[in-house]
Amino acid sequence: MTCEPTTTADPGWRSYGASRRSTRAVRVRVSVALVAAIVLAVLLVPPLVHLDQQAVDLSSKLLPPSWSHPFGTDDLGRDLLLRCVYGMRVSLLVGVAAALTATVIGTAVGGIAGALGGWADRGLMRVVDTFSSVPHLLLGIFIVAMFRPGVWPVVVSVALTHWLSTARIVRAEVLSLRARPYIDAAVSGGASRWRVAVRHLLPAVLPQAALAAVLMVPHAMWHESALSFLGLGLPTHMASLGNLIQGARGSLLAGQWWPTLFPGLFIIIPTLAIAGLAGAWRERINPRRRSELML
Amino acid sequence: MARLAGRRLLFAVPILLVVTFGVFAIAAASPFDPVKAYAGTAALGADAETLERLRENLGVDQPFISRWWHWLTAALTGDLGQSSVLRQPVADVIGERLVWSSLLCAVAFVVAVLAGTVLGVLAARRPGSALDRMITSVAYSLEAAPVFWLALLAVWLFALQLGVLPAGGLTDTASEQVTAHQVAGHLVLPAGVLAVSQLPWFTLYVRQGVGDALTEDPVRGARARGLSERTVLLGHALRSGLLPVLTLVGSRVPELITGALLVESVFSWPGIAAATVEAATAVDFPLLAALTTLATAAVLIGNLLADLLYGLFDPRVKFSDM
After folding, report:
1. Would A117 be classed as within a structural domain?
2. Most CB within 10 Å of its CB: which of A36, A128, B3, B99?
């Protein structure tokens, strides 16, 4: 897959009538259920299930999927289902942290550029252009290489490469909002610049920024897993999904496919679920632009 | 058109300058010590004086701005410094590996464009049909799948289970020289995986473009004239639907580089991307700086190509307006 898992296809596919509308409703429900299941699993499994994901059992190493181990076991006899859930917990935490940081940066830069206009706008947008000229993964690799090892370099490198689209979206939104009568009314009512920005502009761009943040989570997860896979991401004791796939390379070359397959599925499924959810959400806040996930 | 290209290139220069400056600034802010990286394990036993002399020789004692300027002026003459991990000049590293990376990317890109066009047209022909749904679902799933994961599964299936294709490298380990036949065989899997990772994007865009074109008046007119469905689809809808896709091709360079980076590292393909990972693991700053600059230049060239293609293929666009 590419660097842009959820933002590629253009929105605006045509409507095909009632049957498609109902399949869309089903898809939204499935997405909601999946996201809920993922969140619940990530939050509840560690406190409720008293199994040690690190427990090494060499007598049951590299068992294929079975009833007692639905995803099989890895080369140290650890249950892969449990490892995947814990790995997703790490990956999601890093993804959410990076997405939130990126959204704050993007909203601030885009908001300032749109609200101030003029040279500040041009200057900030030049910065955005410059940042987007460096391939994201490469910039991420560079930052991580220079500041290894640790979680924060990964979060910062993902955040620093992902705020650009949010900045563009927020700027465009602020530019269109500035022309609205209620902003004129606030200004002629004597509201200060600051008050207009915080009380009138910010609340209006928040839905877009939040949507961008949600869509960024799988993106950030993907990025983290790529860095970890290259051996440049999270430290190996933090078993993220990328680290799991990296750690399974030896088993894969010996012919065992399950330690590689399942962590990857745990990256794909949240990505599709979040994209489906975000598509429905976008339609609600912005009904004219139809979902990009319409099949 | 030459003027447009010239102006865009002029815009690219400051971006490249800022990117190299940023690279040096990040390195200066990092806790990483270039002297230790250069000397490797030898630095552990060395006394302070030797390290100090080395520091002076490498120019590390100067502020990063002057180091940046020094690097930049040297780079303009073709001297990109010495790679500490590969123990050879950076320019040689890039020269040796660029051809293999370009070959991989070019083959993957062509395959992705061709297959994406075919699949996109098939999907757009009957929107909402079973075929359309299948192609779109698979495309979205592939889009969400990490390319290195696809690459590993491909190795498992084609190299280990079926044993039809080599698992990695450029040639067989036994062979002494690089022959076209060997390279072609070793290229199939990496290029195929890279193409598959770029495929969803093309498929979805072509489907979108052709699907939109099928509802427009020229197509309706062509159908009303009684032209065959094939002519309508390929002669009318595809031609106008492909236009926006073609112009976006140049802007896919970053994704292609990202994909190549991961694919090359799975398949031990001796390209630039694999060198990047090696450089990052060993914190080989000169190599990393050069590769980051090179990738940025590739992205800027891609953007320029996109602009030029846009003007060439769309008669409504005048170059003087851009």
Report:
1. yes
2. A128
